[in-house]
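ok new one. same drill as before - structure tokens go in, u give me an amino acid for every spot. 317 of them this time. try not to just spam alanines like last time pls lmao
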């Protein structure tokens, strides 16, 4: 049985570098926190779920007193098979959580003193994966939807991004191949509550077919009208912040096939912009490192440019 103790754990998470150094001074400190996040304090056997376990291999593994199965601290999590101490991972989590706008692989490499860029890149992708909650609540009750073209700095190639935004609230993005009815429908069904009221511009793809029974306002505006009172202002505002972030933090160097992961990180940060507290964000990331299935290097590299939501929307339908 997985314990969900994040509400307590974030209160316990350090908010400053000094607090961090004190709280997670040793590998044992990090392990204790990890065990709290993963098992609520007392490790359980991965095979028979017994809590009668012995600590072996310097505390990195538990052997079950009932069935003899050995469960490692990180097996079955995003950190499976890591060769680095938890302390190093916690430091990385802290670094990405304290920076409002995130961090590039190059910066992480420098800060952590990693020998290779590839290591830093892999770590960032795992941490980014931890920034997406598996079962996120759909947006509502008032949602704007729009699309934008996002591209690398100076590059001629642009990628289509769908955006759904609550007025002054949460956002979701999807990297999409096109903005036809079927694609918009999959996006809406994945991210927008079935009862939500939707506002869009005049694009014909937003209709009864794509939006279903949701009340829908298609607002056609001139530039002057939009300047006065933009009907999809939250979308436009979010997109401009997103573009600035991609260029500012990542120097526009985002590959097409990884764009969705970056969109997810941006949404994670954006949706927590009013949550002041490094602790809450860092604790959430560690909780997700625990809950998320392992992600191999192969999987990271093979990540297709098709968005995850689109695939899951299709299989769910
Ligand atoms: Zn067992």
């Amino acid at each position: 049985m997985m314990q969900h103790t994040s509400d307590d754990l974030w209160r316990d998470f350090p908010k400053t570098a000094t607090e961090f150094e004190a709280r997670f001074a040793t590998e044992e400190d990090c392990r204790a926190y990890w065990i709290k996040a993963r098992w609520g304090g007392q490790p359980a056997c991965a095979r028979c779920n017994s809590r009668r376990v012995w600590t072996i291999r310097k505390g990195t593994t538990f052997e079950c007193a009932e069935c003899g199965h050995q469960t490692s601290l990180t097996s079955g999590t995003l950190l499976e098979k890591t060769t680095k101490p938890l302390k190093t991972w916690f430091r990385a989590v802290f670094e990405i959580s304290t920076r409002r706008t995130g961090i590039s692989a190059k910066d992480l490499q420098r800060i952590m003193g990693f020998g290779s860029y590839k290591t830093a890149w892999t770590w960032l992708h795992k941490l980014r994966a931890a920034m997406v909650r598996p079962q996120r609540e759909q947006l509502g009750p008032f949602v704007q939807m729009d699309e934008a073209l996002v591209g690398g700095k100076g590059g001629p190639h642009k990628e289509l991004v769908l955006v759904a935004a609550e007025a002054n609230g949460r956002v979701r993005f999807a990297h999409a191949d096109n903005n036809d009815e079927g694609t918009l429908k999959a996006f809406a069904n994945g991210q927008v509550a079935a009862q939500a009221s939707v506002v869009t511009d005049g694009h014909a793809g937003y209709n009864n077919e794509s939006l279903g029974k949701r009340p829908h306002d298609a607002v056609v505006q001139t530039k002057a009208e939009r300047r006065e009172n933009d009907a999809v202002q939250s979308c436009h505002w979010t997109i401009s912040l997103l573009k600035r972030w991609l260029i500012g933090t990542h120097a526009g160097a985002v590959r097409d096939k990884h764009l969705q992961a970056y969109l997810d990180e941006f949404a994670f940060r954006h949706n927590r912009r009013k949550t002041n507290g490094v602790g809450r964000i860092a604790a959430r990331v560690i909780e997700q490192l625990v809950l998320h299935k392992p992600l191999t290097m192969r999987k990271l590299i093979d990540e297709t440019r098709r968005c995850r939501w689109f695939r899951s929307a299709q299989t769910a339908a």
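Residues 45, 47-48, 50, 64, 66-67, 69 surround zinc ion (CB under 6 Å). and btw The first strand starts at residue 53 and ends at 56.
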